[in-house]
Amino acid sequence: MDKSWINILNRLDPLYENGAKEFLHFASLDRPDASTILCPCRKCRNMKFVRKDLIVEHIVVDGFLTSYTSWIYHGEELFSSKLVNQLDKGDEMQDMLPEAFGIPPTSNFVDMDTSAEGFDGSNQHNMGFDKKTEEFFSLLKEVERELYPGSKYSLLSFLVCLLHLKCLNGWSNKSFSILLELLKDVLPE
Question: Taking the CB of the first residue and of the last residue of the chain, which one, N or C, has fewer CB atoms within 10 A?
Fold first, then answer.
């Protein structure tokens, strides 16, 4: 759906009003039986339920909340099905780590015995691993660790998704840190 109308400064522009009507149509699909929906105008800020027949008026008079680009309160999915499919296909973090450290990907070591002493980090110094390689194997373990038992996210992929949301939505560092503290308290260790 085209959301460019949100940034039109002249709210009397027919494109702006048509955009507001399209928004109402979209939001009504999510709650067809409801007589009210959360109002995304600058005054209500998705905090008040307003009758559907007044939504367009609110948006035109007060303006649409320009930071509200993912209409999650009105039926839009937070993560697109395309992103979910990418997550389901496998975690590509393992491919990024070797590249970041300048180490050949583990897929190049076809006959490598991963159960050999030292691979898990127990005897790395005897095998001649330098500090960067030790750090790489430590990060590799972290990539494979589930966020919590049964989760489809690894710790690293979850943090990358959170940072992506932070950037997309303009969260401040302070608000992001507070969110991380809350998640730390809520999620099992």
Answer: C
Are 65 and 104 found together in one domain?
no
pTM for the whole structure: 0.45
By CB atoms closer than 10 A (0-12, 13-18, 19+), residue 100 is exposed
- The pair of structure tokens assigned to 132 is 């960067």
Q: Is residue 124's pLDDT more than 50?
A: no
Closest to 2 measured CA to CA, from 12, 21, 105, 174: 21
The percent of residues in the chain predicted with pLDDT above 90, rounded, is 31
Residue 178 and residue 85 in one domain? yes
Q: How far is CA 42 from CA 45, 60, 158, in A?
A: 5, 10, 31
117 and 157 within one domain: yes
**69 and 103 belong to one structural domain:** no
Please give the average per-residue pLDDT across 86-110, as a whole number. 55
